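URGENT: need a sanity check before tomorrow's submission.

F., can you look over the Polysaccharide deacetylase family protein record below? I want to be sure the sequence and structure line up before it goes out.
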Amino acid sequence: MIRCTQVMKKLHNLVLFVGLASVQAHSATILQYHHVSEKLPPVTSVSEDTFKSHLEHLKKGNYNVIALDEFLNHLKQGKQLPLGTVAITFDDGYDNNIEAAAPLLEKFNFPYTIFVNPKLIDEGKSYVMTWDELRTLSKRGALIANHSAQHDYLHLRQPGESEEQWAKRISHDLTWSQQRINAEIGHNYPYIAYPYGEFDSALQSLVQQLGLIGIGQHSGAVGPTTDFTRIPRFPASGIYSNLKTLKVKIDSLPFEIDQLAYNNSVTKERRPSVTITFKNMDFSKHQLACFVSGVGRAELNWHSENQVAVTSPERLPKGRSRYNCTAPSKTHKGRFHWFSQPWVIQIN
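Structure tokens as predicted:
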């Protein structure tokens, strides 16, 4: 009887360990900011008070706020991350980042990453930080990374440009930007935050060939099955800065996806479809809900117990759209799995 009890206790501990490992491996989110200012476009801005409230929530909630390189290296190597791991990022390198954001982040002792456009810095644009200012932040712990040379739409082909010419031009843009950041800052992280969050299949392939990790602006949590040519982030500015809704996103979990199938995220299809094959389903099939930005609930067509096609019920307008899919977790009560599929609809 004693031996049986000991065996049961060992089995219980093993199950508990496996459960904790599962929790740790599926628990990471990235926040994306632009401006910390009340004087600039509200769609990409947060006030200092709002930004401070975000940081206070992370501190009081004992979130594991870590640098982006540690965050991505752990996930790429299959290492575990504690539940509630968060990385903080800024796009474009605006001057208010050093004036307003950096002092608050340093007060809370939170690491962060700034994605910059080296050509715009070299040209001395008044709205972005200088190399001297970026070096100052880097010495104080900030990571400086690539946002392309001058914030172009990287997936767009120039008139008459062949695929080979496009690939050569974009390869030069990204590698030159990496070199400029390395020359000025002294570090060279292999990340590219896509300008405007837009990417197509060819750009994803090119980024992979260059040994870079592609980072978007579509929502979602990050996990072991995340495609590293399209890492999601949660925008936390403008209408997305409301802490009540942001809390749910910060606590979200990634779906475990075995396969993601769609023609192209930049498309002329007006009702594009994405088929998701789930690896493991920590949610009830009937509780999966997908919504189309500006439209409403998406159409779901289950092909099997673990494969679903998601389609818009209406034709999408020109420009950026998104399908957001969520489902409550069975094992982590109060948390939601979250996935987003971005689209750029091209209409002649």
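My own read: The chain has two domains: 20-252, 259-345. The chain is about 30% helix and 25% strand. If you see anything odd, call me.
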